[in-house]
């Protein structure tokens, strides 16, 4: 009670700042049923809520949490970084900005230290919104560069003894916050310009509501969270068509969902399923065997393809980033080439793109085939292709483990593509991976491969039991009640429904071929394994040997220094050539200038010099300005289909004749 006479009782729960809720108790005792009745809970407890900042403020005799020493050092750091002092005013725009920045920095630092990461969905997007809101407020203090990462040290110093995670994760948290700040700052300026243009247009039209389309453009193109646009709009007396914004968001999500569905499911099929037995889910036996006898359950045509469903199959259907199997399905009469396998609900659909009539020994169109009921077939997966795919899939698990070891445990898989030829692995990380880090990751993966550890697959494991085994599971991800666990003891253990090698030594080796960014905070690594990695290394070796032969280097000599020497020589020769060309050009232009027409006491010259670039024309113009006291002119050139124009005027021409080459 902050009233002078302690009479604040009637002010409780009416929004008066003179009374502060310090502590509350929630008695958790009943479970309310659908009919409104209360059923006693088997375990009853009391939930106690006592705010640390509020207790501190009361103990220190402050009227606001922000006036306590919990925030003092943060405000001091903001002052150091921006030159703006905190005055503890409720209404001051700069004080409001400082409170937002300090509070948001605390939230981000603790959340990131606990393993959360900024992202585009769920809690990750909440963190990104918080950070971007703070960045925009920093701009109102005149700071247009990353600054919040410099405040992390203050929290480590003041709270690290109580929360040791802060000190342990300080470097990682600073890097994440800085990368996020810098990323948003690159679009904040242009986004603010677009916002101001929208506002100006609305004022002209007499409207005060920003359309949902414009708000969505700021979100989708410039990374402005809706609440940031709402805040900026309120500052100029505008509001937002939030229903229109949500409509645009829903349309985008629907397009993305349909695109994913088109890629993953069986689409665009003209025919209807012809069932030879009661419809039932396909039994997948491909974890244990690559060949099996099965019964033809259903067929239908789709364009120029035949789609086949068996009662059971060894063919892996595309899912979890792993592509579908290829192979052969044989009946007594036909040999069917399977060139893709996908899921359609609980069915595994085999795509047949070519076929052969075994009786007549000739090729036939898959769509012309007919079958006499639920015939027995022999299904065989392309073994070489499956094994290559398995090498790449298990390699993604090793890569994930190595990235978490080298870069930090904030690394989480965000997507993958596993084919027989290569692998692609997307993961959360806040900056480009350095060549040294990349080398360390690759070395770690190959060092583990050389240990040739066995791979254990645990099927149909209860989710909680999988976690007890140590399987990676991330906040916000959805998992079934029963899962499959792929375990490389001491190296990696993950929930995964894909197929894998029996021993990591079968991978042979991993060679990373590229690293890039695919979205804010998401990096991508592409790599090859086994024979593909060996072929790549041989190709690079042959290229290097060819270069060394051309340079006439000995086996133990390095190509790099020699190539640098040659490039330096070329650069010097290019400079000499340019100087020589310029000298000749100036001699030519000097003669032209001498005979140029003089108008009103100023020499005026024009010259077309095809084949010269803009830089050479500019250098010539600068030299001509010095060859006569009063001269002006225009040089032009047509080079490789491009036109270059350079106007010039000497100082005297500018001063006495008011000639301006820029106009």
UniProtKB/TrEMBL annotation:
GO terms for biological process: alanyl-tRNA aminoacylation. Its EC number is 6.1.1.7. This is Alanine--tRNA ligase. GO terms for molecular function: alanine-tRNA ligase activity; aminoacyl-tRNA deacylase activity; ATP binding; metal ion binding; tRNA binding. Gene3D superfamilies: 2.40.30.130, 3.10.310.40, 3.30.54.20, Bira Bifunctional Protein, Domain 2, Threonyl-trna Synthetase, Chain A, domain 2. One of its GO terms (cellular component) is cytoplasm. Belongs to the class-II aminoacyl-tRNA synthetase family. Keywords: Aminoacyl-tRNA synthetase, ATP-binding, Ligase, Metal-binding, Nucleotide-binding, Protein biosynthesis, RNA-binding, tRNA-binding, Zinc. The keyword Ligase applies. It comes from the Bacteria. InterPro entries: aa-tRNA-synth_II/BPL/LPL, Ala-tRNA-lgiase_IIc, Ala-tRNA-ligase_IIc_anticod-bd, Ala-tRNA-synth_IIc_core, Ala-tRNA-synth_IIc_N, Ala-tRNA_ligase, Ala_tRNA_ligase_euk/bac, Thr/Ala-tRNA-synth_IIc_edit. It comes from Chlorobaculum parvum. Coiled coil: none annotated. Pfam families: tRNA-synt_2c, tRNA_SAD. NCBIfam families: alaS. Residues 1-539 form the Alanyl-transfer RNA synthetases family profile domain.
């Amino acid at each position: 009670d902050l009233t002078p006479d302690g009479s604040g009782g009637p002010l409780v729960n009416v929004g008066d700042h003179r009374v502060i809720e310090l502590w509350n108790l929630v008695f958790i005792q009943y479970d309310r049923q659908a009919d409104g009745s209360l059923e006693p809970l088997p375990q009853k407890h009391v939930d106690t809520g006592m705010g640390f900042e509020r207790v501190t403020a009361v103990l220190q005799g402050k009227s606001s949490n922000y006036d306590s020493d919990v925030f003092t050092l943060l405000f001091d750091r903001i002052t150091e970084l921006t030159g703006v002092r905190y005055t503890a005013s409720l209404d001051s725009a700069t004080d409001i900005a400082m409170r937002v920045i300090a509070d948001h920095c605390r939230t981000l630092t603790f959340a990131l230290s606990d393993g959360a990461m900024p992202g585009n969905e769920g809690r990750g997007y909440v963190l990104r919104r918080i950070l971007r809101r703070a960045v925009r407020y920093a701009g109102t203090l005149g700071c247009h560069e990353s600054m919040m990462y410099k405040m992390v040290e203050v929290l480590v110093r003041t709270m690290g003894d109580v929360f040791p995670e802060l000190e342990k994760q300080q470097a990682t948290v600073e890097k994440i916050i800085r990368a996020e700040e810098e990323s948003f700052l690159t679009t904040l300026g242009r986004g603010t310009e677009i916002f101001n243009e929208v506002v100006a247009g609305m004022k002209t039209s007499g409207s005060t509501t920003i359309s949902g389309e414009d708000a969505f453009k700021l979100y989708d193109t410039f990374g402005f969270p809706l609440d940031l646009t709402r805040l900026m709009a309120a500052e100029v007396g505008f509001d937002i068509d939030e229903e229109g914004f949500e409509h645009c968001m829903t349309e985008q999500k629907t397009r993305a969902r349909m695109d994913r569905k088109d890629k993953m499911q069986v689409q665009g099929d003209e025919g209807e399923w012809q069932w030879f037995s009661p419809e039932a889910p396909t039994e997948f036996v491909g974890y244990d065997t690559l060949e099996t006898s099965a019964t033809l359950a259903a067929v239908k045509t789709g364009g120029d393809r035949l789609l086949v469903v068996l009662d059971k199959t060894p063919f892996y259907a595309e899912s979890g980033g792993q592509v579908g199997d290829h192979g052969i399905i044989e009946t007594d009469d036909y040999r069917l080439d399977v060139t893709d396998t996908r899921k359609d609900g609980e069915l595994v659909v085999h795509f047949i793109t070519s076929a052969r009539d075994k009786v007549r020994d000739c090729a036939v169109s898959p769509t012309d085939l007919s079958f006499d009921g639920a015939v027995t077939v022999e299904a065989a997966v392309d073994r070489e292709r499956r094994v290559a795919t398995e090498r790449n899939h298990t390699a993604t698990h090793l890569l994930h483990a190595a990235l978490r070891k080298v870069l930090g445990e904030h690394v989480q898989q965000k997507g993958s593509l596993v084919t027989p030829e290569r692998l692609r692995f997307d993961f959360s990380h806040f900056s480009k991976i350095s060549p040294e880090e990349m080398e360390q990751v690759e070395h770690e993966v190959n060092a583990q491969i050389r240990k040739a550890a066995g791979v254990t697959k645990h099927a149909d494991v209860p989710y909680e039991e999988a976690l007890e085994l140590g399987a990676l599971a991330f906040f916000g991800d959805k998992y079934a009640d029963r899962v499959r666990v792929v375990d490389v003891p001491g190296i990696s253990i993950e929930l995964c429904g894909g197929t894998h090698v029996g021993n990591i030594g079968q991978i042979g080796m991993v060679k990373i071929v590229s690293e890039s960014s695919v979205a804010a905070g998401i990096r991508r690594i592409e790599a090859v394994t086994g024979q593909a990695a060996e072929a790549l290394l041989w190709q690079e070796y042959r290229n290097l040997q060819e270069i060394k032969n051309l340079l006439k280097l000995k086996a133990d000599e390095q190509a790099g220094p020699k190539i640098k020497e040659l490039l330096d020589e070329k650069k010097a020769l290019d400079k000499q050539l340019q100087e020589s060309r310029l000298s000749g050009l100036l001699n030519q232009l000097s003669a032209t200038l001498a005979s140029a027409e003089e108008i009103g006491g100023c020499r005026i010259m024009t010259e077309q010099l095809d084949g010269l670039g803009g830089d050479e024309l500019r250098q010539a113009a600068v030299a001509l300005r010095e060859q006569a006291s009063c001269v002006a002119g225009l040089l032009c050139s047509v080079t490789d289909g491009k036109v270059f124009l350079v106007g010039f005027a000497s100082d005297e021409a500018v001063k006495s004749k008011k000639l301006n080459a820029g106009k």
